[in-house]
Amino acid sequence: MKAVLKKIISFISGLLVISIITFILTKFTSQDPAENYLRIRHLPITPAALENARSYLGLDKSWIEQYLSWFVKVLHLDFGTSYLLKESVVSLIAGRFLSTFYLGVTSFILIIVVSIPIGVISGLKTNSFFDKCVRFLGFTSVSMPAFWLGYMLIFIFSVKLGLLPVSGKNEPLSIVLPSITLSFSLIGQYIALVRKAVSTQLESPHVENARMRGVKLRYLLPNHILRNALPSIATGLSLTFVYLMTGSLIVEEVFSWNGLGSLFVEAIRSIDTPLIQGCMMLFGLLFLLNNGMTQAVNHWIDPRVRKRGNES
């Protein structure tokens, strides 16, 4: 019960900190929020209009009063109306969320399918020719800019070969190029993570003793090597999903994939404060939820974590 209470308090305090950071960051802009509001709405910027806009937006109050008023609305899922698109921020985010979620899940599956088998083989064959090739390709993938890779994939598979759509999401195969671009650098990172975890377990005393006694590798791999390597692999992969949901800005811009990333870019370009705040709060909430899920997964698969949790 104490552990659950600690997690709830940690979640609430984390959400509070994220809300404070979000509110403060959106206040540090080079433009007057009232003037920006009038400009986006194509209204005349006059002293009287500025005064009315400040009163309407609550800018004539102190920062503490503004924050408390805003945070109470946030708790009721009321982020206001977008200056630019003139729609509810919640409805705009909800409309784009599924697109980003679809892209993130597809990329996540691609990372798992590619990185885990290759990482396991590379970890079992350390310093072999295959391992050296994998490490070189992994380093190359991490060093490759996402926007450059996206344009190259479009040029090769869409323009030259005509196999896949250039952009948009109207066709079933439209997801292929964006998901490859988004996951490519992460595949290299997690091949290295899986390789390290497997090679470390392979060199552990209990595995070496078992191999000296003649225990076959096909038995040791699922029952000892992968089982003990799973916590670090699961932690890394769980953190990846948040990045896929929040770090798709460039990919969505390159492929005209109308998701949260492109919505956030539009909000920043126009300094649309309510929309920026809504997106930032969602990204922070996703991070907190993912952190809680990561701890739950580790508690489930790692007996040492369960033991520490029971002792506390």
TrEMBL record:
Membrane topology field: Multi-pass membrane protein
SUPFAM superfamilies for the chain: MetI-like
BP GO annotations: transmembrane transport
Cellular localization per UniProt: Cell membrane
Keywords, sorted A to Z: Cell membrane, Membrane, Transmembrane, Transmembrane helix, Transport
Cellular component annotations (GO), alphabetically ordered: plasma membrane
Residues of the ABC transmembrane type-1 domain: 97-298
Signal peptide boundaries: none
Pfam families, A to Z: BPD_transp_1 (PF00528), BPD_transp_1_N (PF19300)
Transmembrane segments: 7-26, 101-124, 136-163, 175-194, 229-251, 271-289
Name of the molecule in the record: ABC transporter, permease protein
UniProt source species: Streptococcus australis ATCC 700641
Taxon lineage: Bacteria, Bacillati, Bacillota, Bacilli, Lactobacillales
